[in-house]
Every structure is written in C-alpha cells, then in structure tokens.
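quick q for whoever's on today - can somebody do inverse folding on this one?? i tried earlier but teh output was garbage lol. tokens:
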C-alpha cells in the first residue's frame, strides 16, 4: 500500500503507515458528523506529535518527494474527501482511501502543471530546480499524452469517445 499512496512525514515506514490506518478504520461510513469528530481528534494528536519532531528532519523527509511542504503549512481537508464521488457510505475502507489517494496524486500533478512545485527546492528556497529543457518537454509533451490516452477511451453506453482535447483545457 505504501507504494501507491501519499504518506505524511510521520509515517516513517510501512508499519507506521499501517498504524495510522488502524486508528482511522474505526470511522463510521454511515454517520459523517461522528466520523468528522473522530478524524479531528486524530488530526489534533498528529499536530501535537509533529510539534515534538525536529523541523529539519521533517523537511528532509519531504525532500525525497521533490516538493517543498513544511509541516507548518500542511493542511488536512476532511470535507472534500467526504464528497459523494470520493466517499461512498458502506463501501470498503480500501475503496474510499484509494479514491482519496487518487485525489492526492491528481493534486500533486496539478502542482507541477502550474509551476508551483518546480519553483522551490527542498529547503524552500525559490530556485527552479528543473533542467531548462525539462519544463519545455513537460509543458509540450504532457498535454499531448493526456489527449492521446483520453481520446482513445470509448464510452460503451453511447459508443462514442468520452474525452476530447477541450475536455481538460
């Protein structure tokens, strides 16, 4: 599971990640208000634990992801994860967390698209660490790749292609 989801810096290894999910697994899929309160308790515990850690250690762990995200600017958005398409009441937790992981990955990609992530190095200094040609390749190659892939998908219900170049521009 650790290979496929974005983990917070306090999950140092797979056992740590499993420990985090064990605490969250008691959240009810039927009672959203109760689930929100339980998650807020866990968030408060996480915040207090992160105060004990050395800030240099946290930033060093984040640098492996090639994105600057210091602990003091980290946010957890609980409401967005409970939207109907991301969270289905009664679905297995693995399905719901998989959808949230997809959302985290998608947001990370969008950070690269608008240049915010590539504009900072791992120390938080505003230095574009991408090679000069890499930004050009990313900007010109990625949209075409998305267009080629998405335009090949055929919706079996209407027997037509669902996506066009204009769907995501």
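ok took a stab at it. sequence:
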């Amino acid at each position: 599971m650790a290979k496929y989801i974005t983990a917070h810096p306090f999950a140092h290894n797979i056992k740590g990640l499993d420990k985090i999910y064990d605490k969250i697994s008691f959240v009810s899929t039927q009672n959203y208000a109760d689930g929100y309160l339980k998650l807020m308790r866990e968030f408060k515990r996480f915040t207090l634990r992160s105060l004990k850690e050395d800030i240099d250690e946290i930033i060093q762990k984040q640098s492996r992801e090639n994105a600057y995200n210091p602990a003091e600017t980290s946010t957890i958005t609980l409401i967005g994860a409970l939207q109907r398409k991301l969270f289905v009441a009664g679905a297995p937790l693995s399905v719901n967390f998989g959808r949230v992981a997809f959302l985290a990955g998608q947001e990370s990609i969008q950070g690269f698209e608008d240049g915010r992530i590539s504009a900072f190095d791992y120390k938080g200094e505003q230095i574009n660490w991408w090679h000069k040609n890499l930004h050009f390749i990313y900007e010109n190659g990625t949209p075409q790749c998305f267009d080629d892939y998405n335009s090949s998908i055929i919706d079996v219900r209407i027997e037509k292609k669902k996506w066009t170049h204009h769907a995501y521009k």
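fwiw Residues 131-169 form one domain. also Residues 66 and 122 are 6 Å apart (CA to CA). so keep that in mind when u check it
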